[in-house]
Amino acid sequence: MTAVLDGLLTDEAWIDRPLWVLYLQQETDSPTAGEEDLRGHQLLLSAGATIVYDASSAVTVVGRHEYSSCIVVEYASPAAFAGLLPESGVAGLAEMLGPHGYAIPTSSGWLPSAASGFPAPLKAQQPIARWDAARLEAHVDENEKIAAAGRSGPTFATMEQAKHFATEPAQGGGEVWMLNLVQFSAEPRAWTGRITPDRMESGEAAYARYGELTAASTEDDGPLIQHAGRAMYSSRRISASLVGESDFDRMMLVQYPDRDHYLSMGAYKSYVAAHPYREQGLAELYIVSTRPKAPSTSAAARL
Predict the structure, then answer these.
(1) Which one, of 285, 227, 287, 231, lies nearest residue 258 by Cα?
(2) How far apart are CA 270 and CA 20, in angstroms?
(3) Distance CA 250, CA 130 (A)
(4) What CATH topology corresponds to 2-106?
(5) Are 151 and 158 in contact (CB under 8 A)?
(6) Which of 14, 19, 29, 158 gives a 20 to 30 Å CA spacing to 132?
């Protein structure tokens, strides 16, 4: 952790430039005596910190660990960030975030500014189902391709995660922004389902093919656009994790009008057909549903 901070403070690619840090915080059942709270700490409250994105409600849809909060904060430079750390340094930050929390430095400017606000959600081109635990269970029984035996691993949601996302009250009633943390496979992984995709030369190439198939096709808009998924906001540069057990190659936020749009996309046939490339391409994936406090522009402005 200290080596990562030292790199930010000395590497010309980072030094003396605005720094954004993404915090993924876990909800702790029994905080230790004297434990500091991230939301009450100078890392967020100081005049030298500007909150760019604040989602006090978060649910892990895909990934090994559960998170309850997602925040992106801008600092004037890595040195300004280091000056706001708790007295115990990065170790103290790790305690505030929880046992599997993350603090991931990124380049700045990849999300809309506070002045411009977030754009209004798109309108879906496909019917949107209303999802609950019973519908998820029935969907599994009806369509093996969508929840087939053998579909497990780092790029899939468990049934428990899907049900939690579909039924958590704090995730309902409005738009969701899906945080994607992507780690490419060193070489393409084997697909565990019945569909065999083309063999890609690298994990990154396989994931790029997945992106091409989900964003658009030669016939029409791809399942992302058809289900009102706003084009991704992606970090231009991402550091090794300052806090956290994994490093990631890409960080993205994708906007949907609500969770039903996202779940309906996940069940759509062309999305299912593209999924083998995601499994091939990734060694680890987190998809965390977040609900930002900053409202989007008026629904009347929707495209």
Answers:
(1) 227
(2) 35
(3) 31
(4) Alpha-Beta Plaits (3.30.70)
(5) no
(6) 29
